[in-house]
Amino acid sequence: MCGVFGIFNHPNAAELTYLGIHALQHRGQESAGICSSDGERLHVHRSTGLVTEVFSQAQQHQLPGNMAIGHVRYTTAGESDHLNAQPLVFRYSGGQVAVAHNGNLVNAQRLRTQLERQGSIFQTTTDTEVIPHLIARTGPPILNAVQDALRVIEGAFALLFLTESGLITAQDSRGFRPLSLGKLGEGWVVASETCALDIVGAEFVRDLRPGELLTISANGLESTPCLAPNPRAICSFEYIYFARPDSEINGVSVHDARKSLGRRIFEESPVEADVVVGVPDSGIASAIGYAEASGLPYELGMMKNRYVGRTFIQPSQELRQQGVRMKLSPVRSAIAGKRLVLVDDSIVRGTTSGRIVRMLKDSGAKEIHLRIPSPPITHPCLYGIDTARRKELIAAEYDVPAIQEKIGADSLYFLSAEGMVEATGRADSSPNRGHCLACFNGDYPTPIS
Ligand code: AMP
Ligand code: SF4
Known about the structure:
The chain contains 17 helices and 24 strands. By secondary structure, it is α+β, with helices and mostly antiparallel strands. It has a 7-stranded antiparallel sheet. Strands 5-6-7-8-12-13 form a 6-stranded antiparallel sheet. It has a 5-stranded parallel sheet with strand order 18-17-21-22-23, sandwiched between helices. Helix 5 packs across helix 6 and helix 9 crosses helix 10. The structure holds adenosine monophosphate (AMP) and iron/sulfur cluster. Adenosine monophosphate binds next to helix 13.
C-alpha cells in the first residue's frame, strides 16, 4: 500500500508535493520520494524513511520546476530497500519518465520473466518496474506507450507518470485504489486521498474513473478511456482501516463510513454493557457509531502514544513482560469495574486484540465484548494491502468461538459482509459502486497469474 501525489503548473511544485505526501504518510512509512520537472529534465530525491526524514528544505529546493510527483511506500511487493523507493525514474527513446504507483500488480512476476528473457535488466525488486520496461518496448509517443503497458498489466494500480512536459495518471479497470483530482489556481493536483488535496488548498474536482487515462499538460486536461471498465472493486479496507478519516473516497466520507459501520454492528450484535471504547485510531469512529446507536456512553478507555516513532528504542523483552507498553495505555478510571463494548477495526493475525483485551482486563475491566466492524479476514490481499499470508490469518485457521477464546474476550462479533457494504454507502449494484471483498470471501476480482 502506498500514497501518490502529483501537481502540475505551480511555482512551488516540489514543496507542495512534500506537503501532499506528508498528508499521505499513513499510507506508507518505508520510503518517500519526489520527482520534479523543470520542463527540460527531471530531478529526483528519494530514500528510505519518513517524509520528514527523507527531505530537508535544501532537498526540496534541489527539485526545481512547476510540476512534480511524489510517493510514500509501504512494502507489499519487493524488498524494503532504498532502490525500491519511488518515483522510479528512467530514460527511454522518447526522453525521461518518472512513475509512482499505488497498488499491486498480480501478473508482474510473469511479465518480468518474459521481459528478462527478451533482454531487460531490472534494477529493483518492485512489481512497478515492469511498467518502465513495457514503455521502453513501445517507444514514443508516451501516451501510446503507457496505453500499451496498461493493457498488459493486471491488478490494482493508481499510477502517476511525470515527463519533462506533463503528468499522466492512470487507474486500473476496477478502481481498487482511490485517486482524486483537484484544482489549485491555474494548476492541477492528483492525490491518493482528498486529505492531500485539502492540505495544499486544492479544490476537489472529481475522482478518477476506473480504466481512465488522464493527461495533464499545457493543453489542459485530456481524458482517454483506456481500459474497458470492469465492475468497480474499490478496496473495502480503505474505508475500514487504511484511509484517513478526513478523506472522502468515491464521494463517501471515511469518518461517516466508519460511524455507520459501528451503528450497523450494534444492529447486528447488541450487548448488555456499561460503556463503549474504541481502539485508537481506526476503531474510534465505529465505536462512536456504536455508542450513538446503542445509547451507551462513549469512553476514552485507552490512550495512544503518538510519539513512538520507528527510531524509538523498543524496550527489551524482559521490560515488556514487566508490562512496559509503548503504544497504548489504559485509562483506568474509565474502565475499571465496567462492562466494555470494545471496538477495533479489524483482526488480522489476532495478536493486537489479544494484547488489548489482556491489558484492559488487567486494568479492571469486568467484561469485554469485542465488536469488529468488518468480516473475518480469511484470504490474503493481492492488491497492495499487507494482510499477511493465509496461514498467519487467525480467521483462516480458526472459527469465531475459537478466536474469541484465544483473544480472551467475553464475546466476539464480526460484522457481516452485507452489513459492511451497506454501511459504507455502496450498496447499489451499479457498476461504479462495487467493493472488493476478496480478503473476506476469496472472490478475487481479477484473474490471478
Ligand atoms: P493483528 O490482528 O494483530 O494482525 O492486528 C490487527 C490490527 O492492525 C488492526 O487493529 C488494525 O488497526 C491494524 N491493521 C489492519 N490492517 C493492517 C495492515 N494492512 N497493515 C498494518 N496494520 C493493519
Ligand atoms: Fe482491499 Fe481486501 Fe480487496 Fe485487498 S483483498 S483490495 S485488502 S478488499
